[in-house]
Amino acid sequence: SWFGQNWRHIQESLGRNLANLFWQRNHHASLGEWNPSSTKSPTFPKLQMRVSGILGERFPKGVPWVRYHGVYKDLQINIVWPGKDTLFGVDSVGTVSASLVTYASIQALKPDLIINAGTAGGFKAKEAGIGDVFLASDVAFHDRRIPIPVFDQYGIGARKTFSTPNLLNELGLKIGKLSSGDSLDMSPQDEALILANETTLKDMEGAAVAYVADLLSVPVIFLKAVTDIVDGNKPTPEEFLQNLVAVSAALDKAVTEVLDFLNGKCLSEL
């Protein structure tokens, strides 16, 4: 299963990585076996497909999470969006929501692979530019500071992502390290850890998804498109909103290319 991005919702919010996509090889399903779609189901333009279905009995009662699902070629795809916060009514961004949704989705859907696809801030010092799409090689946290031996490394939680050398070579994606934290801005302490980790990309969910996936032994890859330059001159919220639609289109194209590459392959061929 793939765990990926819901473009319609990301375009409506400041949040990053608002949904994830799960993929499974499926040699028996056909397009005609989709559940009936509502007129509000999101569309993946490049895939020429619609994914449909509201989550239902697979998730705990009362959670705002939304699941869409469909079939593309031999791939069974589930997209899970964390939904709107029940108290404040905004998109459920950040590491807590990402961890909960990832755990529940793995338990319910039993994915073969997770793709966390979304937007991120990039560092020009690491040659990231607006619209660039990266495959993350490593993930870590930059705002979990525990100044006690060993606990400090636990707080950073640095992990390698699932290795996909053939995918990387075939699609010509850029590669870089991803750092995650629960704030859109960057404090001096965050910046120090980000620089120490040699980070190329900054988001608000990736490392949490990686932690849960690693805990439950599910491979995960991260596709990140750059909407704003963290070490640039423009305010992050302004630059993010300015570039979101165009960058989402670039990410949509990259996700489609990844799915085309994955179709018919096993994990060892990636």
Keywords for this structure?
globular; disordered N terminus; 270 residues; alpha+beta; 7 helices
Quick overview of this protein structure:
This protein is 29% helix and 25% strand. It is α+β, with helices and mostly antiparallel strands and 270 residues long.
Please, could you describe this protein's structure?
The protein has helices at residues 7-10, 95-109, 151-156, 165-171, 188-196, 206-215, 236-262, and strands spanning 2-3, 20-25, 43-44, 49-50, 66-72, 75-81, 113-122, 133-141, 159-160, 174-180, 201-203, 220-229. It is of the alpha+beta class and 270 residues long. Helix 2 (95-109) runs parallel beside helix 6 (206-215).
Note the overall shape.
globular
How many runs of DSSP E, i.e. beta strands? 12
Helix content: 25-40%
Question: Distance N terminus to C terminus?
Answer: 15 Å
Multimeric status of the protein: single chain
Order of SSEs:
EHEEEEEHEEHEHEHEHEH
Can you summarize the main beta sheet? 5 strands, mixed, barrel
How much of the polypeptide forms β-strand, as a percent range?
15-25%
**Mean pLDDT figure:** 81
Helix-and-strand structural type: alpha+beta
Low-confidence spans: 1-19, 25-43, 49-54
Radius of gyration: 17 Å
Output the number of helix runs.
7
- Major sheet: arrangement of strands: 7-11-10-8-12
